[in-house]
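Protocol step 4 of 6: record predicted structures for both targets in the notebook before any analysis. Target 1:
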Amino acid sequence: MKLITVEEHFDTPANIEQFNAHSAVKNNNPQQAMLAPLLTNFAKHIEYMDQYGIDMQVVSDAGNSAQVLPDELTVAACQVQNDTLAESIAAYPDRFAGLATLPVNVPDAAAQELERAVTKLGLKGGIISGTINGQFLDDPKFETIFAMAAKLEVPLYLHPGVIPDAQKSMLYDSKAYDAKLATFMGGAAWGWHMEQGVQMVRLIISGLLEKYPTLKLVSGHWGEFVPMFMERLSEFLPFSGLDLPHEFSYYYKRNVYITPSGMYTAPQLQLARTEMGADHLMYSEDFPYIQRKEAVRQFITTADLTEQEREQFAHGTAEKLFKLAKCAS
């Protein structure tokens, strides 16, 4: 069985240095230094993929993303990051595809960079991490990015990002536990997933997917809480003045694709399968931040799925959405 994982990450030494020097959003991953050799070396990706039976990775920049650099630096930094990604993919064209890093807080430049990355570099879409300097993406200033993705017929992966300090302080800092635990509560354990779920909900109820019905969005970590509340949102939002011709679940099921991001858990898979169908599920590990090793292949080969669903989840949906050449297993 072919296996394509679609939320896998890279970085460059130059970007890590620039990020550490200039970014107002600090990476709080205690393993970041240890992970740098895996992030910056595509040959190491290949070694891991060969060892654990992964045929292809769709690679993107998250964590130290050039997206969050100051406006005067981010455009050029994202261009360099995307050029480097395209060059690395060219060395292993049958093993990697890529998503563009975008200077999101400079929306017109971000749309132009998405167009360049797709049409000139051969990247398969873009990735946006978290909120943007405290702004959610339903702000009209960001619409040009989504319009470009729809025009190009490429997906945007909405990835979590480090939440703002004020949000972390209000929701997760506590006198009952220490600062390290608060950081993880506000990050990978809970907080940035909840924020990214709010991000998706806001985009849908803003009418974005009614205006751009062909736009495709990807959400990791089994949909960042949203699938569990889909019926609740569909029932209650109309009472709050939602003025759209379809209910919330219609847009989510039509336009959103979800991945596990290495959360290889059977109950979440069955919920996602029930709500979305296997044709809206794609596989992902979140390498190298998460390294499930033998479990990458074991989870999907033993999951309670039909063989058709298994093939869609493992590679078929990704091949269709990202327009990937069908790789040999």
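Target 2:
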Amino acid sequence: MTKVITVEEHFLYPSNAPQRPAEDVKVDPRGANPDQVAMLLGDFEQRVAYMDQYGIDMQVISNPNDPALTETNPVKAVELAQQTNNRLVTDMNKYPGRFAALATLPLVDPEAAAVELQRAVTDNGLKGALIAGVPFGHFLDEPQYLPIFAMAEKLDVPIYLHPGMPSKAERDMLYRSPSYSDAIGDMLGSAGFGWHAEQGIQMMRLIMSGLFDKYPKLKLISGHWGEMVPNFLERLDEFTGMVPNKLERKFSDYYRENVYITASGMFTKPQMDLGLAEMGASHVLWAEDYPYLLRKEQVADFLNNADISGQDRELIAHVNSEQLFKLN
């Protein structure tokens, strides 16, 4: 049986959990059983039992919903991020060899976020950071966020770009319609399509900003088979090449060299075939999206039964993650 490491797995401590979705959202992103998800997010004992039952050797865990991510007071945001990162280390250490983690950052203050990234990696042994959505309505290609990327390159750790809920204005304009319910519109605007499209735009903007020319050794991770970008690599090359730009290389060159994509529980052959065709097995990681998705036997079985070479299977299942996150 192939060793399996999954890398988009989430936690949230009960004291930090939102009680319900925002008033303007008609669907709960925690799915059909939000109480179960809320319980599993913070219960490490049940998490390990689940991993043992379904053949998952290690999870790389992260928190896309920590209050530090949306706190507008910089001092309080730093305090909250440090509390989460410190508590996480204590909990992981109870289960040696089963977990690695990505840091929570106080994004309201990018300079402080870079400092916390350094502390979390060098002092706490965390393996990078996760940034969810568009912080405070700002895409990450804006210059104030450069210190975070500079620090990630300096430390040689990746940053996982995770979806977040698009704004109400985006959802109202693009996804809601009088021809179907607001609940359908909000599902299309979130997990169905919208937050993936927005995160793909995030990646597109970062590459076109020249980020990887500034920081050529920086590594970014994109879930859900690349949030739609891999299907458009050739078209992006063609049309961005028609206009003057400041990039030193083609769009796809940066994407294939500096970006890793994960399955995020989308265990479907067409998406896997496309991801492998565009990226190669050396830039694909395995992920379930626990506990928002509970794929159970599929986590290991889909990969073990996939029509790929044994070498590629090992790369995707664990070798790429071990190298990228320095898990050995």
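Step 5 preliminary note on target 2. Strands lie at 5-10, 58-62, 99-101, 129-132, 159-162, 220-222, 259-262, 284-285. The mean pLDDT is 95.
Proceed to step 6 after PI sign-off.
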